[in-house]
Write a structure and sequence with these properties.
Structural class: mainly beta
Radius of gyration: 13 Å
Helix content: under 10%
Strand content: over 45%
Largest sheet: 7 strands, mixed
Number of strands: 11
Number of helices: 0
Shape: globular
């Protein structure tokens, strides 16, 4: 069974880049036929899908975030990463990685000075 663990800074300054990594165990991001996704949940709001990278390396993003989002992968480390540029306090949320109906535990990211 795939297991996912997010890591990254919990505090990001406005206008900077948010960078998170998801470490995968129990499956390969390069061979398992999954879509390796990032989602987030702002305080008091519902889940928002950010984007995914497929097992073949293709990526697709939420159109509302596309201009600021990049999802990449490191197959040697079995990790995939999220970068969200030019963040504002509205990007404050719990960020989670997900695949195969499995979610990571999530990590709180706060955008503040």
């Amino acid at each position: 069974q795939v297991r996912l663990l997010e890591s990254g800074p919990g505090l990001v300054n406005p206008a900077q880049t948010l960078a998170l990594t998801c470490t995968v165990s129990g499956g390969s991001i390069a061979t398992n036929d999954h879509y390796w996704s990032w989602i987030r949940q702002p305080p008091g709001k519902g889940l928002e899908w950010i984007g995914f990278i497929s097992y073949s390396g293709s990526s697709y993003y939420n159109p509302s975030l596309k201009s600021r989002t990049s999802i990449s992968r490191d197959t040697s480390k079995n990790q995939f990463s999220l970068q969200l540029t030019s963040v504002t306090p509205e990007d404050t949320a719990v960020y989670s990685c997900a695949a195969a109906n499995t979610f990571g535990q999530g990590t709180q990211v706060t955008v503040s000075v």
